[in-house]
Amino acid sequence: MLAEKTNTAQQVMDSLSGFAGKVNFISDAALADSLRYLETYGIPTNKHEDYKYCNLDAVLKREFKSLSAPAETGADINALRLEDTITLVMVNGVFREDLSDKTVLRGLHISSFTNLSEKEKTLLTQQANPKNDAFVALNTAFSGQGFFMTVERNTELMIPVHILYVSDSENPAMTHARNFIHVEDSATATVIEHFVNIKNCKVFSNFLSEKQIGNNARLTVYTLQDEGTAGYSVNTNQVELLRDAYYDNTTVTLSGQVVRNNHNVVLSGSNSQAHLYGLFKINGNQLVDNHTLMDHKVPHCESNELYKGIIDGKSTGVFNGKIFVRKDAQKTNAYQSSKNILLSDEATINTKPQLEIYADDVKCSHGTSTGKIDEQAMFYLNARGIGKESAARLLLQAFSGEVTDKLEVDSVKQLVEQRLNYLAV
Amino acid sequence: MSNELLEQHLKKDYEWGFTTDIDTDTFAPGLTEDVVRALSKKKQEPEWLLEFRLKAFRAWQNMPEPNHWAHLPYPKIDYQSISYYSAPKVKPTLNSLDEVDPELLKTFEKLGISLEEQKRLTGVSSNIAVDAVFDSVSVKTTFRETLAEKGIIFCSFSEAVQEHPELIKKYMAMVVPATDNYFAALNSAVFSDGSFCYIPKGVRCPMELSTYFRINASGTGQFERTLIVADEGSYVSYLEGCTAPQRDENQLHAAVVEIIAHKNAEVKYSTVQNWYPGDKDGKGGIYNFVTKRGICLEENSKISWTQVETGSAITWKYPSVILKGDNSVGEFYSVAVTNNKQEADTGTKMIHIGKNTRSTIISKGISAGYSNNSYRGLVQVRKGATNARNFSQCDSLLMSDTSGAHTFPYIEIKDKSAVVEHEATTSKIGEDQLFYCKQRGIDTEKAIGLIVNGYCKEVLNKLPMEFAVEAQKLLAISLEGSVG
User: Fold this and answer.
1) Which residues of B touch A343 (CB under 8 A)?
2) How far apart are CA B427 and CA B429, in angstroms?
3) How many C-beta atoms lie closer than 10 Å to residue A310's C-beta?
4) How much is the pTM?
């Protein structure tokens, strides 16, 4: 195992030697930490507790030799735009200002990584620690031209921001998109993070987003993952909430061969609130692994998680959620729920809901359930003349509804419902 | 208010902390292949058993000590500083209780398991057959003759090796292979004694069988094995209890318990674990690393684990059931209490292999003082385990802001007809519940006892009568004054 690890690490080191100098927006210290982590630990295999059900090392070694791809795409970006949104475009991990909308929205400020102010520079890499995770380290070492989005103090963005992450590469390649979303004090924003794989090409997208939500600020994020049947991705979200802040994320996984979501939320200001919702419907050999961490650092915070999965074919669903309540975080309310439906005998679901609690005056709970389509409900519908297949579709739609109802932007909801395709005959 | 009560409790002594001054025959500390051979020779074991020990020992030497995954910080154990055999110097064979060292009998009387009394009360109120294991050796098994009439074999493990080698050979290490894990391998290499129980076809064991473990000598470890075989259509309820003297050093207890249930058989295994937990600063106490596993080998069999864990400085214990036979049932009921500096990482594994298998897990954790209490469990439904059903509930109660309660459930499902549910909650005793009791004239201390007992009721109800009473008392003592 050691030899294999060294191979992956060596490959990274080799590629980096000609590349490292270009990433001037990442501090030398962070870069050094990333490299040291990769050299010491390599890419996690399934021996690593956090990647027990998701062996990405094997995939990376086998398929992805190239650690970047040119930021070019022949795709028609206009076809991907959503109504009444501001569109920002990243291609293969590089921010393309030329393809993005010119922002004239009051309170919204976008700067490319090459153009960061000193203040932005200090914020960058403050949330995601390359010393904790190989993919954060990889991204820190390799991220190209990302962008820094600021929602200015006391402003409310009237239109959602639609960020398109486009994967388009002839050859198998790994890409490293990265951004920082800073919602300043008392600001409000809605962001749609939309991942698309244009020609269903073999791309490993290693995405990292750092988000900081200021005092009394609100951020709602809808994440749509549509990496196609050949796309692999690791999506890391490192979110920090300050006092009275509110964060709400709904992640819908529409496609992707292997999708790993690391959603880490740190509640570091009192009376802050975080909600995570997730939905995936998978088939074939797909693997979707949702990893969440709710880190309650201070008193009087609330967190809530609901993840739902529909697993068909030979696919595998994973949910690993951790609620971490530190010693000082009294009066914490934290809830977590994972519900899954297995549709085939070859399908697998692994769940690991964890509670780690060091404060006594808290209310924390988690629940997980796995089953098949309810036979009674099925009978009820059959008895009313609805055929088996339509009835199953209706029931699955109802099952998903609890999550899709959280999508409050109409164009997003429509897109999801159309892609989930329950109503097609 | 609470500080005072807490003080009171913290000053409370471990009631079973005495030592017994009797002659023992103890090996010098250290573990080598020669020690394993000497041990085997001392017990006049057959060749195959020595081979088994040596195989386990060699495997153990090459195994890394598992200390990275459990939520248990403890200093490295020096396996060479432990003596692997300690036995009271008793006559080689004992026919009646009169021949047992009177000091020993006194010890058991202090522990509340008077062997003599039980002999007198045959078949009356305390209807339990006891196998008492003192340090490394089983000293006396009561009721042997009565049980033998029904064909039930209940004796010490060493005797079973001599008298029923065919059964031991057939069933030993069937569920826990010698190289299963680090501590099971260690046990397989150096186990000194334990209990063996065989219930023949169609027999319902007329009384509760019980093993009482006691570590007495200092600087020793205790490594015993329990093997229970329930043949077709039989039933047995088995109890296990344990205590140890109060010492500043940490002593190691690494046991293996195996249960085999044949067609239509049922085994109920109850434990009240009360090893010395160490003092209030976490000095001393037993390190308890136990591998317990049962297999429902054939259809309609049932294995039920019930445990009340209040002792030990470190508890590492996962009683498991492999549901191999169709329609088999596995149950796990647990109350784990940690106080002061205790650390517990305990739970269960339910492996569904047969069709229509069912399992239930109820785990109640209570953490007080500076302790950490973790539930770690696995529910696995293999492919082809049609209509498997599991329900798990893990509740934690926090009694202080310096303690921790953690839940690490693993759920792996590979069959679509499986229905698996898991719930967990963590909270402290409700202010409103306390207020309700106090308003009705029940003081804080009693109210807490009442609430905790209610909280654990689902588990305590599963214990046999004699144990339920002891367990309730233990709970009350363990938690006295620990709520703020």
Assistant:
1) 416
2) 7
3) 22
4) 0.84
